[in-house]
Amino acid sequence: MYERSFSSRITPWVGRLLAINAVVLLLTETLFTAPAVIDWLRFDPTTAFGRMWTFLTYMFVHGGLFHLAANSIALFAFGPAVERRLGGRAFLIYYLYCGVGAAVTSLLLSSLMPIGPFVGASGAVLGVALAYARFFPDAELIVFPIPMPIRARTLVMIIAGLDLFGALAGSGDGIAHVAHLGGLLFGMLYFGVQNLAHPPEGPRLPPMRPRGIPVGVARREHREDGGSALRERAESLAPAPAAPVEPDPAELEATELDRVLDKINASGMNSLTHDERAFLDGVARRRRDAGD
User: Fold this and answer.
1) Element (H, E) at 140
2) DSSP-assigned letters across all residues of 167-220
3) What is the CB neighbour count within 10 angstroms for residue 248?
4) Per-residue pLDDT reduced to its tens digit, 234-252
5) 43: DSSP letter
6) Region 277-286 average pLDDT
7) What is the pLDDT of residue 145?
């Protein structure tokens, strides 16, 4: 049911981040080609405390066109749905948070294993991929060259496993596996704190309006005889007592979910109340648990 509300159309902050990354690569490949420029922007655990700005700047620098293309494709694939789900401002904060978390993780582990300088938005992008897998765990994705669709949750688990193996093996392939794991780890931490601060709630039942006398009839008869006709009319229209019928929880949840999705289509994700966001989180969690 989510597919009808979260299309693949690019969103504002995803578009801006893609453009910034592309412009920075263009500048470093044409105008600012001196190695000192990259050295000033990249993250190096050995000099991080003396260059605090590199906790942010490294994620906007890439090591070439292929590196940029890989991160851009992943951000384009996962980012729009996550931005619509979180809202623009929260998405940007989450993206930067995961990127900084990737650098912090590398800094903390640099005393246990050799970690060289690195650049790239992979840690931030993998944090976005984790958010996508959390919101849409059963979404099927095609990953070249694998010929069959892979569920989002499974894909993120595979990526995490490969990065963990690369980090432990010290493969020396030039990929910042520890930074990748840091982006995933800080994404998990973000949603863990969100769950503790705002535990999901069950669906709220829509208000039920009792059936009664039409308003126009009631007002007219009340004016004509001071209310006696209203009382007689009410007595004649009063339904016979019936055994109460328990509402179907699944139908109520589906109705409420349709209402919330329609509201998102009409006004955007930011229009949702806290209870409506918690309701969506609860539905996603129950469906994810049911699929396990």
Assistant:
1) strand 140-141
2) HHHT--SS--HHHHHHHHHHHHHHHHHHHHHS---PPPPPPPPPP---HHHHHH
3) 10
4) 556 555 555 556 667 777 7
5) B
6) 79
7) 77
**Residue 105, Cβ neighbours under 10 Å: how many?**
21
The counts of H helices and E strands in the chain are: 12, 2
- Euclidean distance between the first and the last CA atom of the chain, given in angstroms as a whole number: 19
The chain-wide mean pLDDT, for the chain, equals: 82
The DSSP H or E segment spanning 141 is: strand 140-141
Indicate the burial class of 133 (C-beta count within 10 angstroms; 0-12, 13-18, 19 or more). Answer: buried
Q: Which of 137, 128, 79, 78 is nearest to 101 (CA)?
A: 128
For domain 2-197, give its CATH number from 3.55.30.10, 3.20.20.190, 1.20.1540.10, 1.10.390.10.
1.20.1540.10
pLDDT classification of 159: cutoffs 50, 70, 90: very high
Number of Cβ within a 10 Å radius of residue 125: 28
- State the Rg of the chain over Cα: 27
Q: Grade residue 262 by pLDDT with cuts at 50, 70 and 90.
A: confident
Angle between helix 152-169 and 122-135 (nearest 10): 150
Looking at residue 11, its amino acid is: T
Convert the pLDDT of each residue in 98-119 to its tens digit.
999 999 999 999 988 989 999 9
Single-letter residue type at 200:
P
3-state secondary structure of 239: coil
Distance, in Å, from the CA atom of 92 to the CA atom of 136, rounded to the nearest integer, reads: 19
- Rounded to 10 degrees, the C-alpha dihedral 211/217/223/226 comes to -50
Q: How far, in Å, CA of 141 to CA of 110, rounded?
A: 34
User: What is the rounded (10 degree) CA torsion for 55, 56, 62, 63?
Assistant: -20
